Amino acid sequence: MDTILSLAGVGKTYKSGHVALRSVDLEIKRGEIFALLGPNGAGKTTMIGIVCGLVSPSSGTITIDGHDAVKDYRKARAMLGLVPQELSTDAFTKVRATLEFTRGLFGRGPDRAYIDELLKDLSLWDKRDTKIMELSGGMKRRVLIAKALAHRPEILFLDEPTAGVDVELRRDMWRLIAKLRERGTTIILTTHYIEEAEEMADRVGVISKGQLLLVEEKHALMKKLGKREMDILLVDPLTAIPPELAEWDLTLEDDGNRLRYVFDAQAERTGIPSLLRRLPDLGIAFKDLETHKSSLEDIFVDLVSEKKEQAA
Questions:
Q1: Which residues pair with 227 in a beta bridge?
Q2: Rounded distance, CA 65 to CA 3, Å?
Q3: CATH architecture assigned to 3-223
Q4: Any idea what DSSP says for residue 131?
Q5: Confidence class for position 98, pLDDT limits 50, 70, 90
Q6: What is the biggest distance separating any 2 CA atoms in the chain, rounded to whole angstroms?
Q7: Is the overall model pTM greater than 0.85, yes or no?
Q8: Distance in angstroms (rounded) separating the CA atoms of residues 9 and 132
Q9: Quick one: how far is CA 187 from the chain centroid?
Q10: How do the domains of the chain map onto residue ranges?
């Protein structure tokens, strides 16, 4: 696949001195689904805003299908569709009319059949002649998605698409994304849900504090994020981890009342059975076990630490 979107050294520093984005280099392939994964405030929305011309970059260049996003703004912007986080629509306009108006803004002529298809795909058909101000929050978000698609963009940005949406809309959205993918539309979504990235994306980028930490194929990244934790609740607290347990990645938590074991859930051997057999041999009794995924924050701490070690 060839590159449809390229960012080279793109950064954003505000007058206050706050660095929102740190020299991002990124290439998006035509027709792929790319997930930008990061916590709130990581720089995801800033990056999308810069590409879509809503935020001025402090440095770098952006090329959209061969068009410079600054020098050839009109052609570049016409290739993009954006579904923002915020609900911002013309409250007094009817649903169908706002979609037709949006097509006109991008120089597209009327296409009633395509607009009808969009309305049906997003369960808006029954609301096509309703004023937007009369719609529920979920329906307004559907209108935002339809507006972003009204001019048939080559690249669709979805900024936190499932934040605060109901189950039905989430299902309709993923169904529509699959349909758009079949048509060859390039889709870039931001999220702080690992599950969302795992469900839809071909590649995943991880961003934290304005820095793009890594970009990898989804399966390779999910393998890295396959870390799990098992807490072993002890009958009697320990003051230190016995040296006989050194082969396992253990830490003492909760004033010595809890042993935490970090392991790779996708590994052929997790080491759990041998650990649980070893504990009684050392006279360590436990009363319960708890397993859970590492939190996203834990993952980001690990990634940042790894990058610092590589730079040292």
A1: 264
A2: 7
A3: 3-Layer(aba) Sandwich (3.40)
A4: B
A5: very high
A6: 78
A7: no
A8: 40
A9: 11
A10: 3-223, 227-293
